[in-house]
Design goal:
This protein has about 450 residues and is an alpha/beta fold. The protein has ten helices and 16 strands. It has two domains: about 5-345, Alkaline Phosphatase, subunit A (3-Layer(aba) Sandwich); about 365-420, Arylsulfatase, C-terminal domain. Helix 2 runs parallel beside helix 8 and helix 4 packs parallel to helix 6. The radius of gyration is 20 Å and the shape is globular.
Length: about 450
């Protein structure tokens, strides 16, 4: 077994399942959209049946941070937490709850978050209160890439718990901070490994590339940018992120750290307006496959053989459990993990295990269970049954053909749901834009 690895956990924002070349993405007109990530997958392992814990950002991040179902915490019932919650003492990740960075810190790791937090605001909440030694990035869900202002117009770029005014395109600023962190941590990485969360806001709206600084004033009062954007801009935004990830990998190689560093890449949920989710349907806010099935790439040369692929079912919190397992960091007995370590699969991709996955959403009263080949789905009070390998687009509803299986999966979902706290009556779906403004899928 390799020594305790450094860990870099990279999260894109609203990336579609097929946006990357290694997941079937199309040529972007200027060449491959994601050559660095494609190379990372070629040198590591790519999961084809991996999911996010939620089809919207902050609930997934609760699960990512805790390795537990997000429904256990009040703040995750917001879909998502929005900037109006600033000052709330209930809508956020409680500092007393163990997290992946806090557990790693107890195990001797140095920890940092570079990028999006979106789990509540100081003084009640914040990255430094939940296990991170360092933080640079926005606290809220979405910010302009140049002014770094959130949807309410407030400046939202922080260093620690102090606002930090800095010029530059946000994706590039985050990439450079990540490289700087690796440069600073490298000398002591043998004795004290590091955990770096690199949480990009790309390719989340507003639709701005590195060359679109002139758009910042146009969109500053409405970051949802419903009147703008196009698929070409969107792909450029992914490419800028991909370039930054390439610089991160170069930094690891420069310091001789690539062999013993576990690098994980994913998205917080499925894609949005300009995303490519083929062959899946739906997207952000949906429990259809396009809203929750996301890319999962892992690279760790000391453990993972090149060119691997896995159909193991997994979701965000399983990767959090995997990081803890790889680091030898035990969970807190008072907060048992819901996530299951994938370390055996990373060592031997031919190994798979049964992994039922559950979801629920306030939005449209959605619920879902993926168990083996089968998926139970409810939307707006209507029940569906799909055989996913045979029908990834979820077009053939087999509920009427196989009522016994539907009932079995529905009962299994109900049994699981009974173990979770109920949905708070004051929970909100705070999209920030009307559902009618969302694209029809």
């Amino acid at each position: 077994m390799a020594r305790r690895p450094n860990v870099i956990f990279i999260v894109a924002d609203d990336l579609g399942f097929a946006d990357l070349g290694c997941y079937g993405g199309r040529d972007a007109g200027f060449g491959p959209v994601s050559p660095e990530l494609d190379a990372l997958a070629a040198r590591g392992i790519r999961f084809t049946q991996g999911y996010s814990n939620s089809p919207v950002c902050s609930p997934t991040r609760f699960a990512l941070m805790t390795a537990r179902y997000q429904y256990r915490l009040r703040g995750a019932a917001e879909e998502p937490i929005n900037s109006r919650s600033r000052g709330s003492r209930t809508l956020g990740l409680p500092p007393e709850h163990p997290t992946v960075p806090s557990l790693l810190k107890q195990a001797g790791y140095r920890t940092a978050l570079v990028g999006k937090w979106h789990l509540g605001y100081p003084p009640a909440f914040g990255p430094l209160r939940s296990g991170y030694d360092e933080f640079f990035g926005p606290m809220s869900g979405g910010v302009d890439y140049f002014t770094h202002c959130s949807s309410n117009g407030a400046h939202d770029l922080w260093s620690g718990e102090e606002e930090k005014a800095e010029e530059g395109y946000l994706t590039d600023l985050l990439s450079q901070r990540a490289v700087d962190y690796i440069d600073r941590m490298a000398p002591g990485s043998g004795e004290q490994p590091f955990f770096l969360s690199l949480h990009y806001t790309a390719p989340h709206w507003p639709w701005e590339t590195r060359d679109d600084a002139g758009l910042a004033q146009e969109v500053k009062d409405n970051l949802f940018h419903l009147h703008g954007g196009n698929v070409h801009t969107y792909r450029r935004m992914i490419h800028h992120m991909d370039e930054g990830i390439g610089r991160v990998m170069q930094a690891l190689r420069r310091h001789g750290l690539e062999q013993d560093t576990l690098v994980i890449f994913t998205s917080d949920n499925g894609g949005e307006r300009f995303s490519d989710n083929w062959p899946l349907v739906g997207g952000k806010m949906d429990l259809t496959e396009g809203g929750i099935r996301v890319p999962w790439i892992a690279h760790w040369p000391a453990v993972i053989r090149p060119g691997q692929r896995s159909a193991q079912h997994c979701m965000t919190m399983d990767w959090s459990a995997t990081v803890l397992d790889a680091a030898g960091a035990p969970a807190d007995a008072a907060y048992p993990l819901d996530g299951v370590s994938l370390l055996p699969v990373l060592r031997d991709p031919a190994r798979t295990f049964a992994r039922p996955l559950h979801w629920r959403m306030n939005h449209r009263g959605q619920r879902a269970l993926r168990d083996g080949d089968w998926k139970y789905l409810r939307v707006d009070g209507h029940d569906y049954l799909f055989n996913i390998p045979a029908d990834e687009r979820e077009r053939a509803n087999l509920a009427g053909r196989d009522p016994a299986r539907l009932a079995e999966l529905r009962d299994a979902w109900e049994s699981w749901n009974a173990t979770m706290p109920s949905i708070p009556e004051d929970a909100t779906v705070s999209l920030g834009y009307s559902v009618k403004d969302m694209p029809q899928r």
